[in-house]
Amino acid sequence: MPSRFDAVVVGAGAVGLAVARKLALSGRSVLALERHGRHGLETSSRNSEVVHSGLYYPKGSLKARLCLEGNRRLYEYCRERGVFVRNTGKLVVACSEDEVPKLSELKARGAANGVEGLSLVDGAEAARRAPGVKALAALWIASTGIIDSEELMQAYRSDAERAGAIFLWGGALTGAARKDGGYELQISGEDEPVWARCVVNSAGLGADAVAALPGLDVDAAGCRLHYFKGEYFTLKRRRPIETLVYPVPATHGLGIHLTIDRQGAQRLGPNAFAVKSLDYDIDAGHAVEFWRAASRYLPDLSPDELMPGTTGIRPKLSADGTFRDFVVAEESARGLPGWVNLVGIESPGLTCSLTLADAAAALLP
Length: 365
Ligand SMILES: Cc1cc2nc3c(=O)[nH]c(=O)nc-3n(C[C@H](O)[C@H](O)[C@H](O)COP(=O)(O)OP(=O)(O)OC[C@H]3O[C@@H](n4cnc5c(N)ncnc54)[C@H](O)[C@@H]3O)c2cc1C
Known about the structure:
The structure is a single chain. 25% of the residues lie in helices and 30% in strands. Strands 1, 2, 9, 10, 11, 12, 19 and 20 form an 8-stranded mixed sheet that branches. Strands 13, 15, 16, 17 and 18 form a 5-stranded antiparallel sheet that branches. Strands 6-7-5-14 form a 4-stranded mixed sheet. By secondary structure, it is an alpha+beta fold. The radius of gyration is 21 Å and the shape is elongated. Flavin-adenine dinucleotide (FAD) is lined by residues 10-16, 33-36, 40-44, 46-50, 52, 172-173, 202-206, 210, 230, 270, 312-314, 345-351.
């Protein structure tokens, strides 16, 4: 392996792979480091696999802008590269009178963000689009879909490798210091350091720790991460529902929603609660909470239909789970030129993988 690179990318989740692809395709020599033995073993394989529309986020935020464009780009890329994607559409359902006006607010917010294909429908139309769902009214979002995140990551990785990017598996970044106009990087398992002119930190749940390596004060920079777990329960009985069904959103997440995967399996989730460590166990006792939340819109749901499924952990920038935008920052102002931090890349990070990669690349010298 060479010892000098134009760019080192830290982390091979969906975002790191998309960044490595983008930089390699633009002709840079790229080394991508991943602490595990393969790509995508953390958040990128532990999520709802939804191609979001850009509905929820405050106008002008990075999440809104990168998601709107990311949605379009992701469909286009998947179709070109034969990655599974399906434009299922989605219903946000109001189940009580006080939730009905919130649908109009969401519609207005989505429209302000530039989301097209939004329409308010009544309960009968919601039930026609999602048989078995009971709601007073709903917001239909045409551009939402589902994707196979593993296929997506494989496509990014093979594009990157074909363009010359080198991946180092089991190579964690453990140290970084300014040297010769770039960075000298210590990597676990490597005797010699590697030098890179630029570094892109797309280390997901480890992004604050990686940001601290060259000396950044992560608290002063607003980059301290807080972990919020999300659990999923799979439904034993499949319903004839082919679209996604979400409640009106709550503070910490989008609420317990019903998603489908490419095999047609239907699952409920995720919930959201703070955790201190990267522990992916599921608490089967939470099935009752899921049943209570989802039976508001799926009245025939019974608690014994819920089987414990997977979990994922959100890298959140706020300790109380409230909204914070993605951090996409080139750190010259903090004495680290050519170092780009991508921190707090929670949902809709999968949808934004191509647009986050473009945003990171645009910040590099
Ligand atoms: C419950 C849940 C549901 C979600 N649902 C959706 C959804 O439906 N749609 C959507 O668009 N988004 C969703 N998201 C968000 C989406 O999954 C993430 O934003 C996206 O996967 C982040 O990708 P990433 O590459 O930044 O992070 P990751 O996939 O976590 O990758 C980071 C990588 O960095 C590696 N790493 C860490 N530290 C180091 C180090 N020191 N050296 C080397 N490697 C290191 C890790 O091992 C990891 O592989 C969801 C997230 C969660 C938790």
